[in-house]
Every structure is written in structure tokens, then in C-alpha cells.
Write a structure and sequence with these properties.
The complex is a heterodimer of chains A (353) and B (546). Chain A contains nine helices and 19 strands. By secondary structure, chain A is of the alpha+beta class. The radius of gyration of chain A is 25 Å and the shape is elongated. The longest helix of chain B has 34 residues, at 53-86. The chains are: A alpha+beta (353), B mainly alpha (546).
Chain lengths: 353, 546
């Protein structure tokens, strides 16, 4: 049996709004598990149900085999990191971190060593005696992290801990969170709406939408092999292909078919060729004209108008010679493995051929 | 869950409290206005009210002083707020202090100080007469309106200056860029932005002006309003007419309620949440404009604080009986020390008692309202609006009507005065607690719970320390209003339970202004200390005084 299991979780608010409609997940010991989805998808509700702050309408939660729903939240031994940090402003950094050790009746000497270690782990050792009020968001969240870890919880929950920080700090701190989690080896559930963050940090990702699970898998599976159109669009970007005779011809050349499907392709899976580029085995060249060229430094986005729709092509590491002018004739190169087929309900179809 | 039961208990007790201290007394007022002296059900009181010219006139006069006071307060308050928040005024803090002084000054003393200066035998008037200028005495409607404008302008000033310094400057700059003249800018951009604050401050001025009893009583000289009529009917030695007094009380409540609802309706759409990236700056004026702005601000401020200044000066004047003599002495204070110690003690014990109750009960209810929002707490929040608009004299009469006979007889006790102060000020404490709680993220308590503290302990260890400064500040401000409370105590007191404001009122009626001034100074010092403590705990926040 898995370490944490949530089975068929249903949560209704006020009888009319269903935040979770039958969600089941499992988390293993030491695993970094991420709930990813847009706001309102139910990810925070699920996290708070595990923490015990809202009870489920129905469903089961077990931790290490024990029914968690019977345990009041303060006895669950679950560490939590909050989006707004929730650092106690009237306590010093040291006392904030030591706060959770006091009800556990840890002797004073041990509190001192454990808090010192935890603060060193989040690189706040020098600020132990300060009050947190004047500290930066990044520092406050480090306090939050140390405070949740120091009690050696059975489970660590993080509710969008980085979303109030600026971009650079977000990347820096997420690496640290990842390293520290691996070091202490505590099963962690992490909630975010930032797909890049989820991909960077997770062992497994659960993509949610409208109270339901879209797909659970490793970052590679989620990004490289999305099982629904929602996942493909939410994690990464997607070009929809217009369903017409030109598309049929392209698919025919690539020997792909899926009856009744709508097709899409990721921009970075496309290539850009000269106007006279010919098709070869497994690669089709679709002629078109450049609509817009956007230079972003490490990559460039080229919008190409073709017979199968307006396609965005991502070019990585673009040099000065890669620049295209509007109305320039080019062709878009599509590999056989690039197009993805989805049915009317958004489920991924096997692209046989 | 035990927590659920605890808060359900608080909820039930709160409703019981409201029913016994508010709904029953106010209800009995309502009812007794529907019965005649013999105890028969009748609408005769209302018919009489609308038939008799005397009551017509009082009703009309109440509206006149209400709106006159409102207009005066709006003009003075907005001029001062505009100058202080937009121009560099030397000693701006001192000006704010003058406004606070006017706000916390003991009631009555205002009207009487103006009589001392501009009354029939007024000092200033006498001086002017010697120079050949004959000015009419300050009595009558004109005097009431002047005193109201100077007494209630701080409500508007404090509200509007807060709002004006929160208007994002970019908005005005944008309007400037679009080609609006400064005048258009003021009326099309700034005015709508501060309208909610302006109307809220104006409402406070209006409600207080309608409820004010002391000023028309001393200055009116025949200009009667509902509050004075109610008191006259209640206190007439011969032929005291309770049912007519309660009829007037009901009408006073209705008038106040209508204005509260009107203000809410008018300002319902005007809530702007600007970002504060671009704070307004104060302009340094030059030449005559600078002189004019300084003159306006200091003139309003000093006139508003004049009664207090006069009272303090007169409290140190030498007296012979009630007659002032040249020179200064501490006789007035000696008289307080030797004859009026029990009055000071009464005021202190009643106020402290009421404040302790207010803090304990108000905090619990505030937590309930802020943290357990549901239909019930929303109703509770609404019910607390009632004491907010209730004129003090009405609460007094209601308490007499409810606790004179029946199961609980409290007439003549200290308890009835403490309870009347308690119920009137409780809503402020509830709001203070609720708003300071709403500023604390609930995740703070959740963090403590996840760290192993039970919900109750988490509340105690995290939330309580964070709201304590707000609670102390709220308690101190309640103390200020409690110790200055006059109109309900005037109805409820008996010889043993006389308080300082009541004594001041009686001293003024007796013509002993020296002792009255000294007693007022003592009151002012006590209020000042409380305000100082409050500001120490929550930072300087004049708006909390409202």
C-alpha cells in the first residue's frame, strides 16, 4: 500500500459548488508530488483536506495505513508551507522555527540544535534573533520552510509557496526546496499553477482541472506525452491544426491517421525551412509566409501562415541570420512524431498509420 | 468539535445580550409610545405629535440644526482637510491635535465657553461694545449652528484628510494630461474619490447634531429640538409625560436610521480601491495663498479648540463663590478635591467597569463576526448598527422604561449607567476587533495548528498577541467616550451615581463656571491620557477616534 492515499475524494461547498469530484491519488515515501492546475481547479482544496483544514464531503485519506480523516488537524503531524508565508510577526526567527517543537515537549537543548540546523539548511543562521517583519519575501518563506521541516513531519505540504516572489528568486528557491526535500527525504505535496516550476521540481505531477484529475505522471510523461488536450495546452503551448484537405494531405504523407480526431502540434517540435525545402521520409514541409518574428534572446517565435493554420514555430538559440521578415516565404517542417490527435472530449488518441 | 460549541455559546449569549440590553428596552420604548397614561393602546401620542405646533416646531428645528451642523462641519472639515493634505502647513501635527482636542472635549463645556465669550455678558462681546461695536449675543439658532460646525468638523476633517492622502496622484495627473482645469479636476476626479469619506464624516456630524442635547439646551433660549423636548417631558417635575417622551425618542431613532440608510445608499457605488504607487505630495504655497491657507487652518483649529482653552484658563481663575475675581488660584480644583471626589470616583469606576465589559464581550463577538461569517453573524453585525445610531437620551429613557418595574429593577443603580455605556460603545469594539482580525491572515492560525497546537491554543498563542494592541487601543477610545458620556447618564443618574459630565452640566446651570471648568479640565486630562495610550499602541491613527 502506498504511503499516502486519497480515494474518491469529493468536496462540495454550500451544496452547489463542487470543488473536488472524485479525486484519487497516491504518494510514495520520499516522493515529491505536485498538484498542478489553474486557479479554481481544486488543487488547494485537496491539499487543505489532507492538512485537515477542510474536511471532505466524502472519500478516504490514509497516511501510512491510518485513516487520516479521524485525526484532528493539529495531531496529524503534517508540516505546511503557505503562500503568504504565515510567519508569526511577533516572534523572532528562532522562535518561529522553534514554535512547533514546544508542543512536542522537545528538551530545550535539543530545540536549540534542531532549530539551528534547520536555519542553517535554509541559510538563515545569521538572522535567528531578528523579527521577521522587515525581512524580504524570500527570507520569510525560508522561515516558513524551516518551521515546517524542523518538526520532522510525516508529510510536507506546500501551497504555492513561491507565487508571491519575484521571478529570479522563485527559480533560486525552488532549487533549494528540491535539494532540501531530497536531503530530509520527507514525502511532499506541492501545489502550483506554474507549469515550469512543476516540471523542474517534481518526481510526479498530477494535472487537475475543474475538480478532476487530467493526468498523473513524471514531468517527462506530462510534457512529452500529454493524455488530454487540457494537459497539452496547460503544460507547454500548442498549435491547433485546421481540419481541411491540406491537413489530410500532410497526415497522409506522414502516414498518420485517427478517425474523427482534431490535431495539434507543439511549437518546439516544428522546424523552419527555406521556401523551396522539399519533404523527405518522415518530414513534411508545409509552405507558408511569415506573419511575425519575435526575438526573445534564448529563443525566437516565428508565426507562419500556412494552409493548415497559423503555426508558431519556436527556434532555439537564434542567431542574427535566423531573423525573418514579415511576408517572407518559408516552409514549416513537421516530423512524423510531432502531431498529436485528440478526440472530441479532449482525450488523446493513438496516432496510428 | 468543542470549538463549535464554544462559539455557538458565544453566539447565543450575544443574542441574549442584545435582546435584554437593546431589543427589550428599545422595544418597550416603542410600545410605551403606543399607550396612554392610563395604559390603553392608542396612536394618540403620534397624533398629538403631528397635531401640536410645539412638536412640529421641535421636529423641524431638529432637521434645521442637523443639516445646518452638517453643512458647517462639511465646509470647515473639508477646507481644513484639503489644506492640510495638499499644502505644506507649518505645524500640521499641531492642527490635527487641535481637531482631536475639539473631538474629545467634554460635552456642554463647548456651548458654555462660547456663552462666556459671546453671551449676554460675554467677555469678547463686552470688549467689543467698549470699542463701539455692538454684536448680538450668541443665543438662538445661529449660536447653535456655529457651535455645531466647530464641534463636529473634526469628523469630516479626519475622514476626508485620510481619504485625500490616499487618492493616487496619477489619477489627477492623468486628468491634467487630458486637459481638465484644476477646478474641473477637483470636482470630477478628487471629489468622487473622497465622496465616501465625506459622506461618512458628514453622517457622523449629522447624527451627533440631531442627538445633541446640551448645546440647544444651553444656547437655544427657546429654540427647542426633539432631544430637549424629550428631556423636558421626561424630567418635568409635575406632569412628567413618559409616553410622549418615548414617542419623541422613537421619532429620533427613525430620523437617525433614515440618514444612516441614506448615506449607505448614496455611497454604495463609490468604493474605490486605488493602488498607492503614486502618493500625493504636498505643495508649498507662496505669497498670499500661503497666508490664506495657514489662516484658514489655524482659524478653524483654534476656534474649534477655543472652548477647551477657555475652560482650562477659567479653571485656574480666582473665584469668590461662583463669581470670578481677578487673578489666578487653585480654588476650583480644591473644591473638586474636597467636595466632588465621589463624582470623579463614580466616573472612573463606571467608565472602567464599562470598558472592561466592552473589551471582554466586544472581543469575543468581534472574533465571532470576523471568523465565523454566516447569516447569523451578518444579522448580528446588522443588529449592532442600532446602538450606533441611538441618541444617548433615547437609550436613557429606554432603560428607565424597561428597568423601572418588572423582573429586573435597575433604576438608580450604578449598573444601569454602566450597562447603558456598555451597549452604546460595544459596537465600536466589535468593529475594531473584527477589522484587526480581518487583517491577520487565517493561515497564521493554520500554521500553528499544523505545528501541533489545538485550534484554541493556536488562537491564544498567535491571534490574541497580534490583536491585543488593537484591543487596548479600542478599549482606551471606549474609555474616552464612556467618561464623557452625558445624555444617557443625565436621564439615569440619581444623587449617588452622579458622574462628572452630569455634575458639569448642573454646575453650569447653577452658574458655577469655575468648578465646571476645573472638572472639565480633569475630564480632558483623563481623555488625553487615554488617547495618548491608544495612539502608542496602534500608531497615530486619528480616524480610530470616530
Amino acid at each position: 500500500m502506498s504511503y499516502l492515499t486519497v480515494t474518491n475524494a469529493i468536496k462540495q461547498f454550500g451544496g452547489s459548488f463542487t470543488a473536488l469530484s472524485g479525486v484519487s491519488i497516491t504518494v510514495e515515501r520520499g516522493e515529491f508530488f505536485t498538484l498542478l492546475g489553474p486557479s479554481g481547479c481544486g488543487k488547494t482544496t485537496l491539499l487543505r483536506s489532507i492538512a485537515g483544514f477542510n474536511d471532505l464531503t466524502s472519500g478516504e485519506i490514509t497516511l501510512d495505513g491510518a485513516n487520516l480523516r479521524l485525526v484532528p488537524p493539529h495531531k496529524r503531524d503534517i508540516g505546511m508551507v503557505f503562500q503568504d508565508y504565515a510567519v508569526f510577526p511577533h516572534l523572532s526567527v528562532f522562535d518561529n522555527v522553534a514554535f512547533g517543537l514546544k508542543p512536542r515537549k522537545v528538551p530545550a537543548a535539543e530545540i536549540k540544535t534542531r532549530v539551528t540546523e534547520a536555519l542553517a539548511a535554509v541559510r538563515l543562521g545569521a538572522l535567528a534573533d531578528r523579527l521577521p517583519a522587515a525581512m524580504s519575501g524570500g527570507q520569510q518563506q525560508r522561515i516558513g520552510l524551516a518551521r515546517a521541516m524542523v518538526i520532522n513531519p510525516h508529510l510536507l505540504l506546500m501551497d504555492e509557496p513561491l507565487s508571491n516572489l519575484d521571478a529570479k528568486l522563485r527559480v533560486e528557491l525552488r532549487e533549494e526546496i528540491r535539494d532540501i526535500q531530497k536531503q530530509v527525504d520527507i514525502a511532499t505535496i506541492y501545489v502550483t499553477h506554474d507549469q515550469e516550476e512543476a516540471l523542474a521540481i517534481s518526481d510526479r505531477i498530477c494535472v487537475m482541472s475543474a475538480g478532476q484529475i487530467e493526468q498523473i505522471g513524471t514531468p517527462q510523461q506530462i510534457y512529452g506525452n500529454p493524455q488530454t488536450r487540457f494537459v497539452a495546452e496547460f503544460v507547454g503551448t500548442l498549435n491547433s491544426l485546421t481540419d481541411n484537405d491540406a491537413l489530410k494531405a500532410v497526415l497522409g504523407q506522414l502516414r498518420l491517421s485517427a478517425p474523427g480526431a482534431s490535431w495539434a502540434v507543439r511549437p518546439e517540435r516544428l522546424g523552419l525551412g527555406e521556401a523551396d525545402a522539399g519533404s523527405s521520409d518522415g518530414v513534411v514541409a508545409v509552405p507558408g509566409i511569415v506573419g511575425k518574428y519575435t526575438y526573445l534572446g534564448r529563443e525566437a517565435h516565428v508565426l507562419v501562415k500556412t494552409a493548415i493554420g497559423e503555426l508558431v514555430v519556436h527556434l532555439s538559440n537564434p542567431g542574427i541570420e535566423a531573423t525573418r521578415q514579415p511576408d517572407e516565404k518559408v516552409s514549416v517542417l513537421i516530423e512524423r512524431s510531432a502531431p498529436m490527435a485528440f478526440d472530441a472530449a479532449g482525450k488523446r488518441l493513438p496516432a496510428a498509420g | 468539535m468543542p470549538r463549535f460549541n464554544f462559539w455557538t455559546g458565544v453566539m447565543v449569549l450575544t443574542w441574549l445580550l442584545l435582546i435584554s440590553l437593546l431589543f427589550v428596552p428599545v422595544g418597550s420604548v416603542l410600545l410605551s409610545s403606543l399607550y396612554d397614561q392610563a395604559g390603553n393602546f392608542t396612536f394618540a401620542n403620534y397624533q398629538k405629535f403631528f397635531a401640536e405646533t410645539r412638536f412640529h416646531q421641535a421636529f423641524f428645528n431638529t432637521l434645521v440644526v442637523g443639516f445646518g451642523g452638517l453643512v458647517g462641519a462639511l465646509v470647515l472639515g473639508s477646507v481644513m482637510a484639503f489644506c492640510v493634505s495638499r499644502f505644506e502647513i507649518r505645524g500640521g501635527k499641531f492642527v490635527s491635535l487641535l481637531a482631536i482636542l475639539a473631538l474629545v472635549s467634554p460635552p456642554f463645556i463647548g456651548a458654555y465657553s462660547w456663552i462666556v465669550l459671546f453671551g449676554a455678558g460675554g467677555v469678547v462681546r463686552g470688549g467689543l461694545r467698549e470699542m463701539g461695536v455692538n454684536m448680538p449675543p450668541i443665543y438662538g439658532l445661529g449660536g447653535i449652528l456655529i457651535v455645531f460646525a466647530l464641534k463636529f468638523y473634526p469628523y469630516v476633517y479626519l475622514m476626508v484628510s485620510g481619504a485625500l492622502s490616499n487618492v493616487n496622484r496619477s489619477l489627477e495627473e492623468a486628468a491634467e494630461g487630458l486637459g481638465l482645469t484644476p477646478w474641473q479636476r477637483t470636482f470630477k476626479i478628487s471629489f468622487p474619490m473622497v465622496f465616501p469619506a465625506l459622506s461618512a464624516g458628514g453622517l457622523l456630524a449629522l447624527i451627533h447634531a440631531i442627538a445633541d442635547f446640551g448645546t440647544p439646551r444651553l444656547l437655544g433660549r427657546g429654540y427647542n429640538v426633539l432631544a430637549t423636548e424629550a428631556f423636558t417631558l421626561y424630567s418635568a417635575e409635575v406632569g412628567s409625560n413618559m409616553s410622549m417622551a418615548t414617542t419623541i425618542s422613537v421619532l429620533l431613532i427613525v430620523v437617525s436610521m433614515i440618514f444612516v440608510l441614506l448615506q449607505r445608499y448614496v455611497s454604495r457605488r463609490n468604493v474605490y480601491h486605488g493602488n498607492m504607487i503614486n502618493k500625493p505630495v504636498r505643495v508649498r504655497l507662496k505669497g498670499w495663498k500661503n497666508v490664506a491657507a495657514h489662516f484658514a487652518v489655524y482659524f478653524i483649529g483654534l476656534c474649534g479648540a477655543m472652548p477647551v482653552i477657555v475652560a482650562i484658563i477659567y479653571s485656574f481663575r480666582k473665584t469668590n463663590g461662583p463669581v470670578f475675581q481677578p487673578g489666578f488660584a487653585l480654588q476650583s480644583y480644591e473644591r473638586i478635591l474636597f467636595n466632588l471626589g465621589d463624582v470623579v470616583r463614580n466616573s472612573l469606576t463606571f467608565s472602567v467597569g464599562a470598558v472592561v465589559l466592552i473589551v471582554l464581550v466586544g472581543t469575543l463577538i468581534g472574533v465571532l463576526v470576523a471568523r465565523r461569517t454566516n447569516l447569523n453573524t451578518a444579522l448580528l453585525d446588522g443588529a449592532f448598527m442600532i446602538p450606533y445610531v441611538m441618541p444617548g437620551i433615547v437609550i436613557g429613557i429606554a432603560y428607565i422604561a424597561a428597568f423601572n418595574t418588572g423582573p429586573v429593577v435597575l433604576t438608580g443603580t450604578a449598573a444601569i449607567i454602566v450597562l447603558s455605556i456598555f451597549i452604546r460603545r460595544l459596537p465600536y469594539m466589535v468593529r475594531t476587533t473584527a477589522s484587526s482580525l480581518r487583517q491577520i491572515s487565517p493561515s497564521m492560525e493554520e500554521a500553528a495548528i499544523s505545528l501541533g497546537y489545538s485550534p484554541f491554543k493556536a488562537f491564544l498563542r498567535i491571534t490574541v498577541p497580534l490583536i491585543v494592541p488593537g484591543i487596548i487601543a479600542g478599549g482606551m477610545l471606549s474609555f474616552v467616550t464612556a467618561i464623557n458620556e452625558l445624555s444617557s447618564s443625565l436621564v439615569l443618574y440619581v444623587g449617588r451615581t452622579m458622574t462628572m459630565p452630569v455634575r458639569i452640566y448642573l454646575l453650569i446651570l447653577d452658574g458655577d463656571f469655575g468648578t465646571a471648568a476645573a472638572l472639565s479640565t480633569v475630564l480632558l486630562v483623563l481623555s488625553g491620557v487615554a488617547v495618548y495610550i491608544a495612539f502608542r499602541f496602534m500608531g497615530r491613527n486619528e480616524q480610530a477616534l470616530l
